[in-house]
From TrEMBL:
Gene3D superfamilies: 3.60.21.10. The lineage of its organism: Bacteria, Bacillati, Actinomycetota, Actinomycetes, Mycobacteriales. It comes from the Bacteria. Residues 25-197 form the Calcineurin-like phosphoesterase domain. Residues 133-144 have a biased composition (Basic and acidic residues). One of its GO terms (molecular function) is hydrolase activity. Residues 113-152 are annotated as: Disordered. This is Predicted phosphoesterase.
Length: 240
């Protein structure tokens, strides 16, 4: 089993100030809207890889590519504004700590700014993940009892699916396209942030067989790659 620390939206001072985490982890997931230095710190003190997606308050990370001579954007040398050493999974399927993770960052568009998308735009962006899964069938998980394939272990997003743990106000509405994406990729777990629980315990949801987990603050869970058993949630700290 893989032990995962997942964080989003609110810095937890106990983790930010830790020289060593109070628990062992194999992977750090960032669901957006956190200082990139915080993700770097968690990666260093855990000695674990970090996979993240950007939130609507994060810098614009589109258009960057890493080459032999360093980072490039629009054909020109530049520096990477994201967290050092972390993997940006936005619109990608990546493998880390043995888990196959699909990422889709950003929130519903409610004002000008980066990492905000209309429903139609996010639907097109989610199509990249569906096509990637279809083009690489050998990477699919095929451990389900009925022999059907499981595209990924975790779907990592910033915003929740519409009607599944989202908010009533315009900035915190979820995406309808995440319903289709979850149905097609069949993850064990959908991890999101964006919706602040304000000191309450958010309700866990189920969507097409996946546990939907709000990770504002942090959550610690274990998950078996390609498994059929639900993830085990060990610990949580919700935002204030």
């Amino acid at each position: 089993m893989v032990r995962v620390l997942t964080v989003s939206d609110e810095v937890v001072e106990g983790l930010w100030n830790a020289r060593r985490l109070p628990f062992e982890v194999d992977l750090v997931l960032g669901a957006g809207d956190l200082p990139f230095a915080y993700l770097e710190h968690l990666t260093n003190v855990s000695n674990a890889p970090c996979v993240f997606v950007p939130g609507n308050h994060d810098a614009d990370l589109t258009g960057y590519s890493a080459g032999r001579v360093g980072w490039m954007r629009a054909g020109l040398p530049t520096s990477w504004p994201g967290p050092s050493g972390a993997i940006n999974a936005d619109r990608r399927i990546v493998v880390a700590a043995g888990l196959r993770i699909a990422g889709l960052g950003g929130s519903i568009r409610y004002r000008d700014g980066p990492n905000q998308w209309t429903e139609q735009q996010q639907r097109r962006r989610s199509g990249t993940l569906v096509r990637t899964d279809a083009w690489h069938p050998r990477l699919r998980r095929t451990t389900d009892a009925d022999g059907s394939s499981r595209g990924v272990d975790i779907l990592l997003t910033h915003s929740p699916p519409a009607g599944v743990g989202d908010g009533d106000d315009a900035p915190h509405r979820g995406f309808r396209c995440l319903h289709t994406l979850t149905e097609k990729l069949r993850p064990q777990l959908l991890v999101h942030g964006h919706v602040h629980p304000h000191g309450t315990r958010p309700v866990d949801h189920e969507l097409h067989g996946a546990l939907v987990l709000n990770t504002v603050g942090y959550a610690l869970f274990t998950l078996t790659p390609g498994g059929t058993e639900p993830p085990v949630i060990e610990r949580r700290r919700h935002g204030s």
